[in-house]
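Give me the fold.
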Amino acid sequence: MLYHLLVPLTRYWSALNVFNYITFRAAGAAVTALLLSFIVGPLIIRRLRRLQVHQVVREGTPDSHQAKGTTPTMGGLIILTALVIPTLLWARLDNRYVLLALLVTGWMGAIGFIDDYLKMKQKREGKRNEGLVEGNKLLGQVTIGVVLSLVLWQYPLSTLPEPSTAMPFIKWVLIVPVSGLFAWLYVPWVTFILTGFSNAVNLTDGLDGLAAGLMAVAILTLALFAYVFGRIDTSEYLQVFYLRGAGELTVFCLAVAGACIGFLWFNAYPAQVFMGDTGSLALGGALGVVAILLKSELLLLAVGGVFVAETLSVIVQRTVFKWRRRRHGLEYAQQHRVFLRAPLHHHFELKGWKETQVVVRFWILGILCAFVALGTLKLR
């Protein structure tokens, strides 16, 4: 909005030329998101406490977390407010990359909000806190994945072949499905990325500050990729694909990072509020959609390495447990679990690590993953 209002006035005041620079507007979005979190955070937390919107402790969570059942949830409203408003203020609103990123993030946030609301309602009515039926939640995630893939396929954002995705570590190579039947593989691919990473962030959101901190690191990494891909000179030098207009995603990514860091003010141990599905699904959707728009889905294995590990721990735990129960019986399966508890952060808690130790060490691993991802820019 500020870009459209102030850039036309540069003929009268040259200082307004700074709004032509993505770096300036991205920094403005980050600062605005951070300050907005500090402003709306206490207001939303007080409202959630008044409405008794408390955290639902997941089944299988270590006993030390039972006291968190009185902590307000749906704090994702803080994150959504702090990322949407700065993006609308500082980004170019005629940029389709930004509009699609906001659409997907908002959609995922809405699914999470409905889930959190239903859990709260069921808890008040004395029912089992299941929230949104798993099938309906998955349907909502799949729907936005299908919509996004079809939009990108039928209305390409760049001159590169659509549908396609880039290969990390290899210069000038795109994976392009053969036209016709095989091209339709792009639809389930995009749907899988969005659904997978929205759920991955949701699974990781089990300790105070864990998901928010990891998300800030991951989205800042993608912000750098967006800036590089959006500049013809830098992309040519680093031998990566140039995506005209993609640089504007830097503003969106910095707004998300600012919102996550601002949310950490209230979510750091001991947490005053949890993001709930409202925040975790929205953040996972934001991470997934940015990677998809940058044709860097495979890069998410590095950027979101901790999220991937958390998800794989759950898949491995459940798969092996079911196999052993079927082969050797329930008692044997319970006594021979792969992990003491899944997701992975609970395993280390039961190994004797303090909650704060798990969080900080996972942040460090997240930073390490970011460095690996950044290394792909040069190692090609």
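Residues 319 and 359 are 26 Å apart (CA to CA).
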